[in-house]
Design a protein that fits this description.
- The complex is a heterodimer.
- By secondary structure, chain A is an all-beta fold.
- Chain A contains no helices and 11 strands.
- In chain A, strands 2, 4, 5, 6, 9, 10 and 11 form a 7-stranded mixed sheet that branches.
- In chain A, a hairpin with a 5-residue loop joins strand 4 and strand 5.
- Chain A is globular.
- Chain B is mostly beta strands.
- In chain B, the strands form 2 sheets. In chain B, strands 2, 4, 5, 6, 9, 10 and 11 form a 7-stranded mixed sheet that branches. Chain B has a 4-stranded antiparallel sheet with strand order 1-3-8-7, with no helix packed on it.
- The N and C termini of chain B lie far apart (36 Å).
- Chain B is 0% helix and 50% strand.
- Classes of the chains: A mainly beta, B mainly beta.
Amino acid sequence: EVQLVQSGAEVKQPGESLKISCKGSGYSFNNYWIAWVRQMPGKGLEWMGIIYSGDSDSKYSPSFQGQVTFSADKSVKTAYLQWSSLKASDTGMYYCARTIAASGSDGLDVWGQGTMVIVSS
Amino acid sequence: EIVMTQSPATLSLSPGERATLSCRASQSVSSHLAWYQQKPGQAPRLLIYYASHRASGIPARFSGSGSGTDFTLTISSLEPEDFAVYYCQQRDNWPSTFGPGTKVDMK
């Protein structure tokens, strides 16, 4: 079965760092891009950016450039999303999703279950 | 950045009725448009890619059409499990952008 499994919910304080994970299985992890999508409470979907699992080539949406860092470790088929200093406005659900190309005709065909991040003092 | 708009914001229908959801892009996205369904507490699910291609396992009652700036998702006959929020996404221009969503709820 093709799936992406994300790490569990996190509760953090402002200023703390955080790294969440997205582990792929059932497919050739290195040949796909992993997209990160934010959903703030009660709101819609926001495109954060994308990373190629094979070589960690990353592209960031301008809204998230400099705010987060993508990484990937193909030896464990896992992509990561990290923050160096969390803000309350980072509170939300974060999804990873698979796509064959950085842009173009295909969609995000496999999604992780989401990781809820709560940032509160 | 391409702005995606969706209408209506909410669509109140009964099971068995036809649902027509619209998505408009602020500039042409060719056919690089996808549709997703999201139910409460769940991750989104890909329904349609490349404007009109059904994703694997998606029932035939879901269909997509359009190109350029105007797109439509049609659900030919609503099943109880189809009541959800639907998002369109353009993947033609960086950064990719999502529409705000259309909620299909039960009348």
